[in-house]
Amino acid sequence: MAPVLEVRGLQKRFGGVTAVADAALDLREGELLSIIGPNGAGKTTLFNLVSGLDRPDAGSVRLFGQDVTGAAPERLAGLGLARTFQHGRVFGNLSVLDNVLVGAHARLRAVRPSVPVLGPLLELALAAIRPGAVRAEEAALREDAMRIISLFGERLMPRLDHPAFSLSYANRRRVEIGRALALHPRLLLLDEPTAGMNETETAEMQGVVAELKRSGLTILLIEHKLEMVMRLSDRVIVMDNGRRIAEGLPQAVRHDPAVIEAYLGHREAGMARAPAQGTVA
Ligand SMILES: Nc1ncnc2c1ncn2[C@@H]1O[C@H](COP(=O)(O)OP(=O)(O)OP(=O)(O)O)[C@@H](O)[C@H]1O
């Protein structure tokens, strides 16, 4: 079986800065692979290249065996890739429930007929008439959204109708993850899901990610909190200055001299924040 994700020789430059140089990775079904590294190492840029937000200058990306190098995010979503963003992106004026339902949009069948040219008009008509098939699909999506929201315990449940702009930062992050899950992804990219969260919230999020992993979802994770990385990951890739400097089992990577040097070097130079929990050494 083809790996879920295969990245080869990926490069991206921004002016004089090489953000990603010759990145390579393989991700197998059901695996959780973490990417760690100091600030500016190129982790988010790598995510952007894989998820179609940026086009690589060189290299290739294959998803479920298909070449998707430079493909648009919509196409990747159709193939089952969902992602979240480092600073969380939600629709501020939509409710918690509607934000999650938006994520299910790509899965709609009855409501969005795939008819050429007339499709959008038919969609409007169906929205107005709401025949049985449309109502049934809406009900199923709502039930699924509620199931996803319940993954976060009581954090979001009492706030289903609250507009996202009124939520705490941590809750906005949860909503964004919920929206990504509503796509029923086969590959989930999580960019620092615990950024801005306190210890309790981080532990909860670790539980959610562990649950997703147990359910068989393949996950690519960027995370600065190394204790979480050590507990959740099957493998870890360490980046520094756009390059992969180490790859392996979490414990081996943790004690790799090049990794310790990268973290300590950056910290001594005052260039990186210290990981919020745990250290490499
Ligand atoms: N759109 C852009 N334009 C110019 N430079 C960029 C752009 N995006 C990223 N960079 C640069 O590319 C390098 C890698 O940045 P990137 O955000 O990928 O790192 P990172 O490992 O995700 O860092 P962090 O942990 O702080 O999120 C940095 O030097 C950054 O300044």
Automatic annotation (TrEMBL):
It comes from the Bacteria. Coiled coil: none annotated. One of its GO terms (molecular function) is ATP binding. InterPro entries: AAA+_ATPase, ABC_AA/LPS_Transport, ABC_transporter-like_ATP-bd, BCA_ABC_TP_C, P-loop_NTPase. The lineage of its organism: Bacteria, Pseudomonadati, Pseudomonadota, Alphaproteobacteria, Acetobacterales. Residues 5-266 form the ABC transporter domain. Keywords: ATP-binding, Nucleotide-binding, Transport. This is ABC transporter ATP-binding protein. The keyword ATP-binding applies. Gene3D superfamilies: P-loop containing nucleotide triphosphate hydrolases (3.40.50.300). The keyword Metal-binding does not apply. It holds the Pfam family ABC_tran. SMART domains: AAA.
